[in-house]
Amino acid sequence: MLASSKLAAAVPIGTSARTSAALPAPLPSTCSGRASLLRPACPGLGLSGSTPSGCSRHGVITRVMRSTSSNPAFTFGKVEEAVGESYGRSGPPMSVDGAVQKTSLMLAVTMACAAATWTQILTGNVALLAASKGAGLVAALAALVTMFKPQWAAATGLVFSASQGVAMAGYSLMLEMVYPGIVMNALMLTFGTSASMLIAYQTRIIKVTDKFRDGVIMVSGAYFITMLFTWVLSMFGVRMPALLSSGPIGMGIGLVAAGLAAANLLLDFDMIKSAARARMPAWFEWYSGFSLMMTLVWMYTTILRLLTMFAGGRDD
């Protein structure tokens, strides 16, 4: 499954009015400094549809993509190139409401596919349990295609959501058979945490400042490097049981991972709002939904694995 590499709740993030203005071509100069991102140094950006003299929309978009989230969907792939190719084309820019709607649809597809797979397996379709493992590979492929062809997110994002639903259903059902009730607890914690993060972000109880953003990105990077290193060692037969077992170290790492997933939700919310203000093209709504789904999948599987540890199991 994709959660260990963060490969992903339909929740309202904010409001933004759509306009029919086309995206203007970038100007030669750039705005400097993260503090200038969508702020007075570039007055009117994202509000009037025009880019003031001395500010480059491409420069702003570059900073939006590179400095506001640690989600690999935002920080890797070909998003900047895809946005650049969209310059000068007619059509309205993205809005936060549009991103919420696309995320809602993807989440609904994931839940429907997961429910259908779960039901079919319980009624005796054992072959579907084996197929759920292959669905994880399909989801991984769809995620990679989406990251490198962001304009296709409307199609590939739905493929990712559907296949991820099938994959998570098979994985979750196997754990449910061993630890009854664990899946419902994981779902409640996932959606409860997501709602709490949204409320905290909207009410500014938690502010996504530069220091907060840098800290989350730094710790997330360290976590993924550690997990990648552990995975590479396992390919050569070297096991690191302290990181994987249900002991204190393994539980501690699981708690850190769950906390990082929650913090990355805040960064994703802020990323989407910033992208809407920067007047990204309309297809970015689908890409934003795909990106949020990646974080949610990561959060759910991390919580599920953590609950398995607390129940005395071991999830290698």
UniProtKB/TrEMBL annotation:
Pfam families: BaxI_1 (PF12811). InterPro entries: BaxI_1-like. This is Bax inhibitor-1/YccA family protein.
